[in-house]
Amino acid sequence: MIPQSFIQDLLNRVDIVDVVGKYVQLKKGGANFMGLCPFHNEKSPSFTVSPTKQFYHCFGCGAHGSAIGFLMEYSGQSYPDAVRELAQSVGVTVPEERDRLPPAQRAEQQAKSVALSDAMTRATEFYRKQLRGAPQAIQYLKGRGLTGEIAANFGLGYAPDDWQGLEAVFGSYRDDNVAAPLVEGGLLIESSDKRDADGKPRRYDRFRDRIMFPIRNTKGNVIGFGGRVMGQGEPKYLNSPETPLFSKGTELYGLFEARHAIRENGYVLVVEGYMDVVALAQLGFANAVATLGTACTTVHVQKLLRQTDAVVFSFDGDSAGRRAARRALEACLPHVADNKTIRFLFLPAEHDPDSYVREEGTDAFARQVQTAMPLSRFLLQVVTEEQDLRQPEGRARAQYEAKPLLQSMPAGGLRLQIVRELADATGTTPAEIEAVCGLGSDSSRVGRFAQPRPRARRQAPTGLEQRVIQLLMSYPSLASRLDADTRALLLDSTRPEAEVLAHLVEACDGLQGAVNFAAFSEHLAQTPYAEVYAGARTAVLKEEIEEEPATMEFDGAIHKLLAEPLQRELEVLQKAVSAGGASEADKTRMVWLVAEVQRRRQLGLRPATTDGA
Hints:
Layout: H1 4-13, H2 16-21, E1 27-29, E2 32-35, E3 47-50, E4 55-58, E5 64-65, H3 67-75, H4 79-89, H5 103-132, H6 135-143, H7 148-153, E6 157-159, H8 167-170, H9 176-184, E7 188-195, E8 201-205, E9 210-216, E10 222-228, E11 237-239, H10 255-265, E12 268-271, H11 274-282, E13 288-290, H12 298-307, E14 310-316, H13 319-332, E15 341-347, H14 353-360, H15 362-370, E16 373-374, H16 375-384, H17 392-407, H18 413-426, H19 430-436, H20 463-474, H21 484-490, H22 499-509, H23 517-524, H24 530-541, H25 547-578, H26 584-605
Helix pairs in contact: 1-23, 3-4, 12-13, 14-15, 16-17, 16-18, 17-18, 18-19, 20-22, 20-24, 20-25, 25-26
């Protein structure tokens, strides 16, 4: 866990204009900066960055957030990764509970990481230069239909047929200081049994006579390579080994290059090979990525769903493709949601995506993508296709196969629909499927057909309270204007609609020192009332209100809110008087209430003084 206090301090240190300005061309426009939104296509700028609020907001697509949120949205980074990148940019270290390394050891690790990154960058440039002087490699790429522009976009290169090719860049492999980062980064292989005359282990290039595909992380840094043979030879693809920078189970080839096309097309296409990704980009499908010679993992799925709400997996139609699709299905299930779409495309066995597009055309492939099999249908097909559903044994086996898949899914509308269809297919009821599959045993997995738990009704803030929330989010110091008596009336726990307001006032009171809007918003986003605060935040971003008029409006709104419970009491007493059931004390109280309600309403309309209500 990263302490919330650190997040607030970090967002006070960074300038969101600088962070966003690295990726978006911004121009000053009044108090804010304007630019074309990187999250949707637009011709006139509706994307604003506020240096005062330290927040970005697009009036076109509604995207908004802090510097942390921007990095997550733009690069597809996780929350901790975005925090680490921001921290590194201002020279601070993220304090984490698991970080128990002594400062000297931590500094040593950071130095190694820098050396590895530098080695990858220099190797990339070496391979790219080698490609220019390798006619056989150029001819191979042209034969695959690639242009120089697309090869440059993906940074393609060529590893010469040389056992010590990288020595031209880094120096002698016999120098341990030279060889260490190259071995650790997977660029060199160090022999364990063969040694030179002076006793040093033999070191030689891992990649030789191969087309080189640099693998970038979400920040665009090269972290590994894939090398492909140009003719016959095994393995056809040779990947970097696992290194401190590179893990096949967490990275996707082409994700950095595809991020803009994914947003423009509204989905990401997951294919099986590097060449498929590059060739599809050449043919108009620049939103393709590939796993790195390994099965799709849950981390892969998480990364993809940070980029888009729609994922299409493309597999060969043979048995190997079906097995790969089954593994991808299992990786997807923990992350399915009712607002996400995951589909599976099975091409004819004789085709991969590249060959299919070239033979059938882009429109035909686009239709294949549009009609790809939904996850729900594929799941039901997987658990029923080899079973004889006419027999009790076959129906029971289908339920048995479905149990672990359904259990790995979060409770929600999609799982309910799958349960219903499985029930129809196996001649049972949805409730029986949930019982057989154990979907109602955990309170977090209670389904539609299990007995629902009673829930306390949480009432949304009224329009006036919503405005007070907006003003407090803009200027948390306004909470200090509420005295004890006002708080007792305003935040009365018997009023369910005051629940959020009471939480916000407490959050304002707990702030230490100056905290900007972005830092405060990040804090509120981690609370149980995040959804309410998100709506209020959008309203705050659409206006620019100075502190003095905000204070006057806040004081007036508070007086009006305090008049509301008195007005309700007055209405009850007025009905009692009309019915002839009021005592003298009730009548006296009613007279006071009329005057007090009128007084508070007038205070709510009157400009407030600067010394409080």
